Amino acid sequence: MADFIFEPPAVPGIPVQGERGLYPVGRIFCVGRNYAAHAAEMGVEVDREAPFYFTKSPSAYLASGSTLPYPPGTANFHYEMELALAIGAEAFRVSAEAAQGAIYAYGCALDMTRRDLQLKAREKQRPWDLGKDVEGSAVFAEMTKAAEVAPLGPQRIHLEVNEEVKQDATLDQLIHSVPEIVADLSKFYHLRPGDLILTGTPAGVGPVEPGDRITGGIEGLAPIELTIGDPE
């Protein structure tokens, strides 16, 4: 086994209900504009032909219940509540019908976003990395195995800031369904265990400040929680 000049970072892991081991965090794929009302509030149109994606690094992972320092470089830090799925089998060029078999677990997630930097990049037709791939910005709750989750559709997805409801929708409002997302993404990547996909956020996104407490949930899944701390 090769020696490293510097110690490589540890692999973060997400708890899974009923399992002693953790789900390893590898690649984090995120689907943009997958709820029509959210696309409208962002002033853009929905591409209904196919999903589009951006990514977050494993270093963006943060466990539910943590405190996240308000990040540098932004004055407009936003929450986005999302359904996340974890891949549990290799999937490459699979059909939507076969894609369901590659899903290991589901969970609640937050895609925290430096909105001002994202919009600035969008205006200049540049990548969104500074706005989206933020340390601690991919927050995951404990996951539930897919076999134990009811068929997706009518489940409520919601988020509160300081107990005030900000986002409230249902999963059947997803433009591109979970199997469609997995199948489409598998056209471009060899999906494998460790890959996580955030499926998009409903309308109602907005800013948070130090001291704010974010809570959220999806019916049938473990809830999520995050506190915004002071800037470092």
UniProtKB/TrEMBL annotation:
Span of domain Fumarylacetoacetase-like C-terminal = 28-227
Answer whether the UniProt record assigns the keyword Nucleus to this protein.
no
Q: Which UniProt keywords apply?
A: Hydrolase, Metal-binding
Q: Which domain of life is it from?
A: Bacteria
The protein's GO terms of the molecular function aspect are: acetylpyruvate hydrolase activity; metal ion binding
Task: Please name the InterPro entries in this protein's record.
Answer: Fumarylacetoacetase-like_C, Fumarylacetoacetase_C_sf
The record's PANTHER family line, in alphabetical order, gives:
ACYLPYRUVASE, FLUTATHIONE S-TRANSFERASE
**Protein name as catalogued:** FAA hydrolase family protein
UniProt source species:
Rhodosalinus halophilus
